């Protein structure tokens, strides 16, 4: 998937009591991707819901020049995008803003050098920080991602879509109860509603508040 000028090091994830480390189960890559911080994990999660992203890989390495000295720069992520995307494939550095601020001059030089180098490869350079996506949005993606990881048989899909089309915008709670008053079915219908949101057949405001059965849903194409 990568440009021949980009190398990838084998990331070894070690337990770190100062930060969250582990492996993220990626659907797009059909493998687990190592992360070394909560922010990296959040970035990977957001990419799983970006329809322009085909795949991504951790720890890309490119040669950059800082103060006239050539060195190998290990970034955090390489993103491969669909050809129809208006964005180029990109090299991404994942950093908390307070880390950048502590060594502002150093990172400004480093990022400028990285940008110059990756642009020569017809790639974009991006810096992903905690300011890009809200905690609410990421929590909602985390909730929905389970429906990507463990697909369900959605036997209520047609009923749900028909009911939403009739009511335009409706709470998940009211929608489930319109389809069935049976408590057992209610739980199944609820899962089917969020499965359809995950598949983007239904939509809800993922930035507004944490997803609950009081969240309003509507057809995605409206």
Distance between the termini: 35 Å
Are there runs of 5+ residues with pLDDT below 50, and where? none
Report Rg: 21 Å
How much helical structure, as a percent, in the residues? Answer: 25-40%
* Element order: H for helix, E for strand: EEEHEEEEEHHEHHEHHEE
Q: What is the highest CATH level, the class of the largest domain?
A: Alpha Beta
Name the CATH architecture of the largest domain.
3-Layer(aba) Sandwich
What does the average pLDDT come to? 91
Question: What fraction of residues sit in β-strands?
Answer: 15-25%
Question: What does this molecule look like?
Answer:
The protein has 222 residues and is α+β, with helices and mostly antiparallel strands. The chain has 2 domains: 7-128, 3-Layer(aba) Sandwich (Trna Endonuclease, Chain: A, domain 1); 135-219. 38% of the residues lie in helices and 25% in strands. The chain contains 7 helices and 12 strands. The strands form 4 sheets. Strands 4-7-8-9 form a 4-stranded mixed β-sheet. The protein has a 3-stranded antiparallel β-sheet with strand order 1-5-6, covered by helices on one side.
Summary, kept brief:
Residues 50-130 form the TnsA endonuclease N-terminal domain. This protein has helices at residues 38-48, 97-102, 104-120, 135-149, 157-167, 172-179, 183-198, and strands spanning 7-8, 22-26, 31-35, 53-58, 60-66, 69-74, 77-81, 90-94, 124-128, 169-171, 202-203, 216-219.
């Amino acid at each position: 998937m990568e440009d021949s000028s980009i190398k990838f090091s084998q990331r070894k994830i070690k337990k770190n009591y100062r930060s969250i480390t582990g492996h993220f189960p990626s659907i797009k890559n059909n493998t687990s991707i190592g992360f070394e911080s909560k922010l990296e994990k959040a970035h990977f999660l957001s990419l799983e819901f970006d329809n322009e992203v085909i795949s991504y890989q951790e720890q890309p390495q490119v040669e950059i020049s800082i103060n006239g000295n050539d060195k190998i720069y290990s970034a955090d992520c390489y993103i491969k995008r669909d050809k129809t995307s208006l964005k180029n494939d990109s090299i991404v550095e994942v950093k908390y803003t307070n880390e950048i601020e502590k060594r502002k001059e150093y990172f400004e030089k480093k990022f400028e050098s990285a940008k110059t180098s990756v642009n020569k490869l017809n790639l974009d350079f991006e810096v992903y920080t905690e300011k890009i996506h809200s905690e609410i949005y990421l929590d909602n993606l985390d909730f929905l991602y389970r429906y990507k990881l463990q697909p369900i048989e959605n036997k209520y899909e047609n009923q749900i879509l028909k009911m939403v089309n009739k009511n335009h915008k409706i709470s998940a709670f009211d929608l489930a109860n319109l389809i069935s008053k049976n408590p057992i079915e209610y739980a199944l219908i609820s899962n089917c509603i969020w499965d359809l949101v995950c598949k983007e057949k239904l939509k809800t405001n993922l930035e507004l508040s944490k997803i609950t059965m009081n969240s309003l849903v509507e057809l995605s194409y409206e």
